[in-house]
Amino acid sequence: NNIDTSNNFADFSSTNNSAVLLAQQIFNKYPVIYSSSLTETLALRFRGQLAENSKILASHFTLPEQNHNEIEGFSYDSPNNFFIIWIQDINDHPQITKRIKVTSSILSDNYENYFYNTFGSNFIERMYNSISFFDWVSFYVAMLRKIDPTPVNKIIKMKSLLIK
């Protein structure tokens, strides 16, 4: 049940709340989010939630495209504050799963890697559970940064300037 899942993530004091634990790992990092085409909307939404709620920038990319050129961008002089988040689903193509394993092993020498596996009995449930999880992560990142996640002053200002 998605409500129970969200309620579990709502307990900030829980020592095993995975949303809090991920937020603690990324609140002062630059998250780089990777997904398959199957879960690309999760990566896009999470990136957006981090920007809007947590007031931090992140990037998201989709495999296998990442393996065609972007992997070379992780060079010796890349910033060491990247934190790589891999979103995986049980329905990902086996070749994508292999790419995640191989690529993360190459990048793990210089960057922290976090593996998120969707959970639920069907695809829709896995997506809703994941949205809940990532929304809570973005909220906790804001809390750890001591930022109120609710105002979106720059968005409001931009919209007001666009209608003039």
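Above is the first protein from milestone M3; the second protein from the same milestone is given next.
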Amino acid sequence: MPLQRRIPKGGFKNINRVEYESINLDVLQQLADNLKVTKIDRQLLIDKHLIQKSELFKVLGRGEIKSALEVHANKFSETAKAAIEKVGGSAHTIGK
């Protein structure tokens, strides 16, 4: 059997891919209800062990948000940003 058929195929790993930890709107609402906060940022999520210091995070639109929050995240989905701004909150994109 030829050499190229004896060796298994290998995959491709993109070295430029950026991985984001996902945080949904229902988690943000739960944090706001439990902690009585209006500003959610990276340090709060690290303190509550939802993300690690080295991770980037993205806010996704699953769930419902009822209170006006000021959210600082690395990235937002379009539905999450629209839902936050609909209830009177603000969505701020931060750098790495």
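Note on the second protein: The chain has a mean pLDDT of 92.
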